[in-house]
Fold this protein.
Amino acid sequence: MTEPRKINPWLSAGLEFGPLILFFVIFRWFKDQQVMIAGTEYSGFIVATLAFIPVIVISTLLLWKLTGKLAPMQIVTLVLVVVFGGLSVWLNDPAFFKMKPTIIYLIFAALLGFGLIRDRNWLELVMAKKLPMQPEGWRILTIRMVLLFLGLAIANEIVWRMMSETAWVNFKTFGLPAIMVVFFVANSKLFERYASPRDGE
């Protein structure tokens, strides 16, 4: 199997998070406006979504070209952004794009859970080279991630259905990434306890 090529971490982060930051900036700029495009009025949210779709397509393709590989989560996210973002723009309805994180998290919770039932730890297959751990560590981490994804799906539904559009954009842009960071930091003891020695150690 071909090893992914390494690129500058700042460039990688920019390509991964740049489209989301762009979405946030455009939304904040147009959030109280109606923009006329081809004879149809669109809210700032739809305008931001319209800009976000091609930018994330380009950034994902650049990541693939530079590294030679894409993670399954990146591929699924790209497909759902195009589909649900496209539906939001086409039908002029923000609800489709707001549902996207819920669907993404449910898909990954289901895939990881199904893998555990089949005694195949797909999280380990994806991350083992970057985070060597014993099988029991991967099993515990996978169970925790299934619960995390289910919790995030529920949280996303609550925020977009019960709070303002601005609250959802802030939650999507800053809240969800922060929760993921906190999750992995909180599991640092697990990584230490079940760490496997790297090659040559």
